[in-house]
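User: Design a sequence. Structure:
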C-alpha cells in the first residue's frame, strides 16, 4: 500500500476503507491529513442535504417549465462522489472560470498532482520509453530524452491532452506537465505547498512543480522545451 493507492481509496468511499488502506492512513501523516479533509468535506455535504426547502420554492419551480424525472443516487453514494469532485476545492480552492490563464492552469496542475500522485511512486524502469511514447501520441518528436525521468504517462487537464511526468534531480522529485497546442500565461506557482513555473512557447506549455527548493525549476523547464519538437516548429 502506498499514498497513491490510499488516496484513490479515500476518494472512492472514505466511510468504508479496506483494512490495508486504514492501516496506511493511520501511520502516514500526510494521508491522515488528507483523510481528515475528505471526511470534513463529507460532513459539510451531509449538512447541505439537511437544509430545508424555502417556502414556495416548489411552486416556483413548477411554473418554470415541465418537470422531468430524475434518478437519485443514495445519499452516501452522493457524499462519496461529492468528495471526489470537490476535494480540490478543499485543498487549494477551485480554479477560476476566466479562461486558460496561467493561474488557472497552475490550480489544475496542482489539483491533478494531489489526486494522481505519481511523484510518490517508485521509479518505473520503462519511464523513458513511456515519455517518448506519450510525446509521439501528442504529436511531438523527441530530440533528447531528459535525464532523471522516473514516471511518465498520458493525462487530461481541463480537457486538454498532456504529458504528466516525474523527474528526479539533485535528490528531489519534480512533477512535469507538457501541453501541446496550449498557450498559457507565464506564471510562477505557489499553491498548496507546491512551487514551480509555467512557461509557454509557440507550440506548447511546459510546467515544472516541486515541493522543495525551486533553484532547478527554470533550468528543467527550459531543458524540457529543448528536448521536444512539435509539428510546425523550426
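Assistant: Done.
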Amino acid at each position: 500500500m502506498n499514498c497513491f493507492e490510499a488516496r484513490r481509496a479515500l476518494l472512492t468511499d472514505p466511510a468504508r476503507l479496506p483494512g490495508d488502506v486504514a492501516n496506511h492512513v493511520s501511520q502516514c501523516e500526510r494521508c491522515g491529513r488528507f483523510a481528515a479533509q475528505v471526511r470534513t468535506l463529507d460532513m459539510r455535504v451531509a449538512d447541505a442535504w439537511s437544509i430545508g426547502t424555502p417556502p414556495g420554492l416548489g411552486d416556483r419551480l413548477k411554473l418554470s417549465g415541465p418537470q422531468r424525472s430524475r434518478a437519485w443516487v443514495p445519499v452516501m453514494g452522493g457524499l462519496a462522489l461529492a468528495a471526489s469532485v470537490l476535494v480540490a476545492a478543499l485543498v487549494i480552492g477551485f480554479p477560476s472560470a476566466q479562461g486558460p490563464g496561467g493561474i488557472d492552469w497552475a490550480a489544475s496542475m496542482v489539483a491533478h498532482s494531489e489526486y494522481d500522485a505519481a511523484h510518490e511512486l517508485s521509479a518505473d524502469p520503462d519511464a523513458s520509453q513511456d515519455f517518448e511514447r506519450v510525446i509521439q501520441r501528442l504529436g511531438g518528436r523527441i530530440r533528447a530524452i531528459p535525464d532523471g525521468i522516473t514516471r511518465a504517462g498520458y493525462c487530461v487537464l481541463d480537457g486538454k491532452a498532456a504529458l504528466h511526468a516525474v523527474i528526479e534531480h539533485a535528490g528531489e522529485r519534480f512533477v512535469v506537465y507538457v501541453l501541446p497546442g496550449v498557450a498559457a500565461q507565464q506564471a510562477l506557482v505557489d499553491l498548496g505547498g507546491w512551487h514551480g513555473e509555467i512557461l509557454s512557447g509557440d507550440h506548447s506549455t511546459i510546467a515544472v512543480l516541486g515541493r522543495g527548493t525551486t533553484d532547478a525549476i527554470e533550468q528543467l523547464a527550459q531543458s524540457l522545451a529543448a528536448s521536444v519538437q512539435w509539428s510546425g516548429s523550426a
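The first strand starts at residue 140 and ends at 142. The chain is about 45% helix and 25% strand.
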